[in-house]
Amino acid sequence: MSQPEEEFEEEQKDSLKTKKKKKEKRSARKKKKKEEEEKREEEQVEEEGEEEEEHSDCVVLRGIFKLGKKSHDVLLTQTRLTWIPIIPETPTGEACALQPGVLLLRDVFAVKVKRRRAVGQESGGPVLGVALFCCRRRGKRLEEESLHLHNASAEHTQTWYNTLKELLTGSSSRPKYLKVFINPRSHKKEAVHIYREHVAPLFRMADVRTDITVTERKGHALSVMKECKLDEYDGVVCVGGDGSVAEVCHALVLRAQLDANSPEKPVKAVLPLGIIPAGSTDVVSCSVHGVRDPVTAALHIVLGHLLQVDMCSFSSLGQLVCFGFSAMFGFGGRSLARAEKKRWMPSARRREYAVVKTLARLRPDDCLLSFLPAKQSNRDQDQDPESEGEETWTTNQGLYLSISIMSIPCLSQHAPQGLAPNTSLANGSAALIAVGNTSRSEFIKHLKRYNSSSGQFSFSFVETHTVSAVRICPRSLIGCSEEESEEEAESKTTPIIQLEGAAFPWNIDGELVEIANEVLIRVHPQLITLYGEEVDEAESTGSCSCI
Ligand SMILES: Nc1ncnc2c1ncn2[C@@H]1O[C@H](COP(=O)(O)OP(=O)(O)OP(=O)(O)O)[C@@H](O)[C@H]1O
Predict the structure, then answer these.
(1) Structure confidence at residue 329 (pLDDT)
(2) Model ipTM over 0.90
(3) How far is Cα 364 from Cα 437, in angstroms, rounded to an integer?
(4) Distance of CA 280 from the midpoint of ligand 1 (Å)
(5) Domains of the chain by range and CATH?
């Protein structure tokens, strides 16, 4: 065979090979596609099976209503309302593209009879049908929505109204009577307005009665809570910032402890607490709602979404200071103390001023820091870490710029993943974040990373631990003399602080608490119930402008 012929034959062989390969590839692709289709069909069958199972939830009522302008076949079961459009036969046989719909009763918080009324008419009027008020989810936000079922028959409408009402009141976690505390001084003094505008109408609609106290001073909510008849209420609501929330949470747990006559051991709060955010940061509200939004918060309350949440007790020299969710010692305590001295400034400016000033005078504290690592068993159940026998404390002595203890993730719009992303609401432990001595620029880098999603702990001077207890014993007031006197020099009206016996500023849930001695913090698993849901991240509104 001549060479060109050989080459041709080789070429032919090659092209045959590639054709074969292509064919193989094609058939493999076809096979894969067929398998995928079969899988999809199987999944669809499974889904349909599940749907059928759910729909086998037997029909309680069935009737015809108009939704919009079209008639629908409406089915009510114990858990859902389903509507299917009734398509009239047309001479042309044209299909109408109307969609069926479904509404889960767990999302419905009110049902009303609709009537036609003239302007100013308060009662009576011909029946139009029933209206259902429900919540719709938009990301982390819950929004109010209504569904109108029209049928002019009074008897038909009444039967549906009664049955729906009965099904809705069957849910035991939904409150009927609430004790409400409103702090009129919170943040921009908008708490009363927020409650009246966004919350009260939803409570009224859901037939939730309320007993309102507008607080007159710090400690007012605590004194009311100590005295009031708790068994009358199904829950407590706090409208305010983190300081107000901390006071009401503390009051609920303290009251449970007093009622149970248990001076040593904290007792789980009897009533759940709903938080309507009206502060500037609203860390606790963000941690259980994912947003700072009064409507979302109110809808979680009326729908009875309950969450068990861990709390800490803070004590010094054997005396209880308070119950709370988070505490900051060092930088966090100092900047709050500085901000409190400038109460006359608007809150955002005050905070910025305090952060910048405290950064400018950054000083470490010489501390003895001890902690009790959390055991796995603490996190799984409602178990008191104190009851676990031998306690093996780890103790370090050193210079710290900041020490934080947080039993909840502390989400906020400035730190969407939370100040303590490694802890959760009810894992029976707290996050200990200890920031050792470093340069100002490195410390600022660490702080800035809270705004982004991660990396705030990947510095050699930051250590984190999962703990069930922490003890902090400040050993001296390093650098305070110079710092405080500079501060005082600015405000000539306030007396110079006497350093002897001076207390250390702590930021406990956004409130300034001054403690002179060692502080013991213990985590108490699921000590309180809050209205809300488990969220992994808060809605962010951009970074904090001060750093
Ligand atoms: N009528 C009142 N006047 C002054 N203080 C009050 C009053 N009612 C309650 N307080 C106290 O005000 C403190 C701060 O409340 P809160 O956290 O709601 O507001 P805030 O400090 O302005 O908010 P934020 O901390 O989010 O900026 C709480 O300790 C609370 O007990």
Answers:
(1) 96
(2) yes
(3) 6
(4) 11
(5) 59-89+99-169 (2.30.29.30), 173-304 (3.40.50.10330), 311-479+500-524 (2.60.200.40)
